[in-house]
Design goal:
Elements lengths: L5 E7 L23 H13 L4 E5 L13 H6 L12 H6 L5 E7 L5 H14 L4 E6 L4 H6 L8 H21 L6 E4 L4 E3 L7 E4 L4 E4 L12 E4 L4 H10 L2 E4 L4 H15 L5 E6 L1 E4 L2 H12 L4 H12 L21 H11 L5 H6 L10 E4 H15 L3 E5 L5 H16 L12 H6 L19
Parallel strand pairs: 1-2, 1-14, 2-3, 3-4, 4-9, 9-10, 10-11, 11-14, 12-13
Antiparallel strand pairs: 5-6, 7-8
Helix pairs in contact: 4-6, 6-7, 7-8, 13-14
């Protein structure tokens, strides 16, 4: 069976997300990020293009590794200023019917009870279209913002996450029996008290004794995303995640990661989305011309500030042709591995900057609709990925170009849906019910009738 390609728009409630500097382009509207109409129109555009979801990234600290200062990030709007993505979802959900919303939330600084309630609220308000991108953080600046001296070590953060997941699974799945809510007007009984119980947990990191305040939402547990590609991250993803976001390094390297994820997950299905940037036009020549137009607005300084934070390396300390030493970085290990896979051992700052085509480390796919479609199909067929998280360039035209040109080409080849399936976010992605399957760890927390 031919695999249909899935698209998420990859965005953030800020001015400069992945492609640094492109907010300066005269046609870009990213500076409207604080206007709710901007997000409502984005959601409507994505639903018109039959996108599966809007994947919203988030961080809780400023990027201050480069030159040991936030100055470069502030100058170039590198993910600062930044709004809370959860606040945007209800308005976008009200304006759409099918679009899913994958929201990034850092569990390291969220109490499980309050977080579980907020996600259950969004699952109710979206009628089962919410997902959670599980992250443990990578910025010391975020830890300091939360009153700590520094973040936990990389692998220790995943140990914390394992326990956190136990607690939120119990809150979402185990506090209220499936048949607890009666809504019996005649007898005046909304909920049967015998079918609701307190969730109790006493572990190394968390203690809780509480009755969940919310009634069961359509999916109970949101669709679970995770983006860790380190060895420890893949172990966590294989246990918990339904969808995994992978760095777009090389097809061979991504295929190695995907094979390992699927092997670890066993029979439980996982969908993998790889990051991609598309520059497309009616012809290859027009696409190349558009690329050069965009490149004139890309920011090398902004890209270095972003890379320094996500890799945990201050590039200001290195000469242009001096081999960069990652050391014992506690940032995103998979990003460091991806750079090494692309540039080779002993890579330099000059080599990294040469990759900053549009102000990021992500090389764009450029060409006509036919060429871009063929490149995406090759990724799916060769790397065994299921779809793409599409980073924005110049908004909104980058998405409008994909919808106008690439999607019809993929549909003509039988590689993209022509309509939405019914049901929740999980149903649309996996063709099964609203709930996580019985072989998922969350199922152990359920209290069945």
């Amino acid at each position: 069976m031919t695999r249909e390609i899935r698209f998420n728009a990859f965005d953030m409630a800020c001015v400069g997300h992945i492609q640094q500097g492109l907010w300066t382009h005269p046609r870009d509207r990213s500076t409207d990020y604080a206007n709710l109409d901007h997000w409502v129109q984005l959601a409507r555009t994505l639903e018109a293009g039959l996108f599966d979801g809007l994947f919203l990234a988030d961080v809780l600290g400023v990027y201050d590794v480069y030159e040991d200062s936030p100055a470069a990030s502030l100058r170039n709007a590198v993910q600062v200023p930044l709004l809370d993505p959860l606040a945007l979802v209800p308005a976008m959900a009200q304006a759409t019917t099918h679009l899913g919303f994958g929201v990034t939330c850092n569990l390291a600084y969220e109490t499980p009870f309050l977080f579980a309630r907020r996600m259950a609220t969004l699952d109710h308000l979206t009628q089962g279209r919410i997902g959670w991108n599980i992250v443990t953080g990578y910025l010391d600046s975020a830890a300091r913002a939360m009153g700590l001296d520094a973040q936990m070590a990389h692998d220790d953060r995943y140990d914390l996450a394992d326990e956190y997941m136990q607690v939120v699974y119990a809150l979402w799945e185990g506090g209220w029996r499936d048949d607890a809510v009666l809504r019996d007007r005649a007898r005046g009984i909304y909920t049967d008290p015998s079918r609701v119980r307190a969730v109790r947990h006493a572990g190394k990191q968390y203690r809780i004794d509480a009755v969940p305040l919310w009634e069961p939402s359509p999916q109970r547990t949101p669709v679970l995303y995770q983006a860790g590609s380190s060895d420890r991250g893949r172990a966590f993803a294989a246990q918990h995640a339904e969808c995994v976001f992978a760095n777009g390094s090389t097809r061979a390297n991504v295929r190695r990661i995907v094979d390992d994820l699927r092997r670890r997950a066993g029979t439980r299905p996982i969908q993998v989305f790889v990051g991609a940037t598309l520059v497309v036009a009616e012809t290859e020549a027009a696409a190349r011309e558009k690329l050069e137009d965009y490149r004139r607005h890309a920011s090398v300084e902004g890209a270095l500030a972003h890379a320094a934070a996500s890799l945990g390396i201050d590039f200001a300390r290195f000469g242009m042709d001096e081999p960069v030493e990652a050391g014992n970085s506690q940032a995103i290990r998979s990003n460091i591995d991806a750079i090494a896979a692309q540039l080779g051992k002993g890579w330099t700052k000059r080599q990294l900057i040469d990759r900053f085509i549009l102000g990021s480390r992500q090389a764009p796919i450029v060409g006509s609709a036919q060429q871009v479609a063929e490149a995406l199909i090759a990724w799916v067929d060769e790397a065994d990925v299921d779809g793409f998280n599409l980073s924005r360039t110049v908004m909104p035209e980058c998405l409008e170009d994909v919808i106008r040109l690439v999607i019809p080409e993929l549909q003509a080849r039988g590689r993209y849906k022509t309509g939405y399936a019914a049901g929740s976010y999980r149903q649309k992605l996996f063709g099964r019910g609203d709930r996580l399957p019985p072989d998922h760890p969350a199922a152990a927390a359920r209290w069945q009738a």
